[in-house]
Amino acid sequence: MSYVANSAKYTLVQNPYDKHTGLHRGGEAKEVVTGRTLAADNVSRNGNTVTFSIPTTELESYAGYAKLTYKTAVKRGELDTSTNEVKFTNKASAGSGVKKFDSGKGDVIIKNNVIKKSGEQVANSNRIKYTILVNESAVALKNGTDFLELVDTMDAKCALVPSTLKVYEQVNGAWSPLADKDYSSKMEQVKDESGSRTKLTLEVPDGKYLKVEYEVIPTGNPGEEVSLSNTAELAGVTEGSAIDEQKWKIQNASASAGGNGYSITMTKYDAQQVGATLEGAKFTLYSVDMGQVADDGNVENARTPFDEAAIDVPTDANGKISFGTSDKKMSNCVLYQLVETKAPVGYAKADPTWIMLKGSASDKDYQAALTKAKDIVDGAEIIDDTKKDEIWVYDNRMTGKAVINAEKVLAGGTFKEGQFSFALKDDKDRVLQTVTNDAMGNVSFNVDYNKADTYTYTISEVVPEGAENNVKDHITYDRTQHKVTVKVDNGERNLVATVTYDNGSSTPPTFTNRYSTTLPEAGGAGLTMTYLAGASLLCFAATWMHAHRHRDRDRGGRRE
């Protein structure tokens, strides 16, 4: 703990006893100085001791007292991440001239707010904005990695607006956007007893104070109240969970919501980088004959393209695509199926999206058609007029795996499983994984990929704490760093990864530690002490033998 420069402030309270009247002593006291910053020259430091000299001339000739406040900073390394707190004891003493006051002390427990989540209604909108604060003290919360996994599971009664996801880090007291390359995000739908919930997973850097923001649209009719419960969790972190539970009133949709009643607009998003749109995905819009499906149960046989211009239409540079015009309107109470016919390179096609517009149809007619449609879509969502211009379709990236290997050798000794640790770092020297050797000396890192690219890493052995010059317990640790290159290519259904080491070799590197119990080098202090100790023992042995022999002779020459 250390004093924060220029943070000391003092207050002087004048207590004129000579003006006291009646029994209410002290009633005339008044502040003559309030919260004034103490001049830097009045503060001196010596190690952990700080001395404050408070000027009291403004008390004049009256009695009074001074109140001092100041700030201290805690070293991040002092925080115990198993409890997310640190305890300090501060002692204070004071004096004025020859007068010395009793000293005092107090314990201070400082708590790190690991995670906090809150929600608020967006002004003039039917959206709810959520804010998640992560790692307020900006300490390293996890060992063996430089990243945290933040999982936010949303209520089934709301939908994430993907374009609103933002991640910030605090720099010099202000929030600054975190670069896209410094974090990753993905979203998926998970089902439980409450329905289908959106699960948002972010991988964010450890050791930073972060803020995550996004917006959701609650489900319901204007004027209704909906209760939303959203949970955010930091995987593997003590006290790393936060829940926001509130009731929200559904607001009237904006004037543009619902659009013209005869068209739809869809945006294509990357499911593994939330908010990133995809250009070049192709879609066809079909109308479905619900009567024919009811007869033969085959949707593909019962669908026809909405229009010749609606076949294999690509998304634009913003990931958007629209169907329906004033000349070629989409019909009311008709079931439509929006099918992705071709995904962008490196992505898998999404499931079809179902749409039924109400337009000018009566509630009775629309509900009748909707009931028939629900029998066909097998529980899938049917987009209506309120969402027809906010249709969001997500493509999952192709996935692939690579195993990065190394070998462990202990020259001059034998090792056991888990004895040595190894770190895999990215091209920015950030630790991605830390693993140990198996009983045969094999070291393996399993890495998942969702994008074709070339990735570079380094593997290095972790030197344990307490080692001196890379030596601990007679073992000299190998400090070599080996380069790893993983080339990931798009396959037919999956990504294909090729691993090479150092200068393009396919042979995994070997880390060689050496075990030795030899004495220190000649001339060293250790050897000198060994010689001295040995010489002393020899002198003692010679003296004992000499005395022993003389004693034997005194006993008549007999030897015992």
Task: Summarize the structure in words.
Keywords: Membrane, Transmembrane, Transmembrane helix. The chain has three helices and 40 strands. The chain is mainly beta and 560 residues long. The chain folds into five domains: 2-111, no CATH class; 115-249, Immunoglobulin-like; 264-395, Sandwich (Immunoglobulin-like), CATH 2.60.40.10; 400-515, Immunoglobulin-like, CATH 2.60.40; 522-560, no CATH class. Strands 23, 24, 25, 27, 28 and 29 form a six-stranded mixed sheet that branches. A five-stranded antiparallel sheet has the order 12-13-19-15-16, with no helix packed on it. A five-stranded antiparallel sheet has the order 17-18-14-20-21, with no helix packed on it. The model is unreliable at 254-258, 519-548 and 553-560 (pLDDT under 50).
| CATH architectural grouping of the largest domain | Sandwich
Q: Give the number of helices.
A: 3
Main sheet record: 6 strands, mixed
Q: CATH first level of the largest domain: which class?
A: Mainly Beta
Determine the mean pLDDT: 86
Q: Fraction of residues in helices?
A: under 10%
N/C terminus separation: 70 Å
Q: Outline the low-pLDDT stretches.
A: 254-258, 519-548, 553-560
Radius of gyration in whole Å, from Cα?
A: 37 Å
Beta-strand residue percentage: 35-45%
The helix-and-strand class reads mainly beta
- Count structural domains: 5
State the total count of DSSP E strands.
Answer: 40
What gross morphology would you assign? flat
Q: What is the CATH topology assignment of the largest domain?
A: Immunoglobulin-like
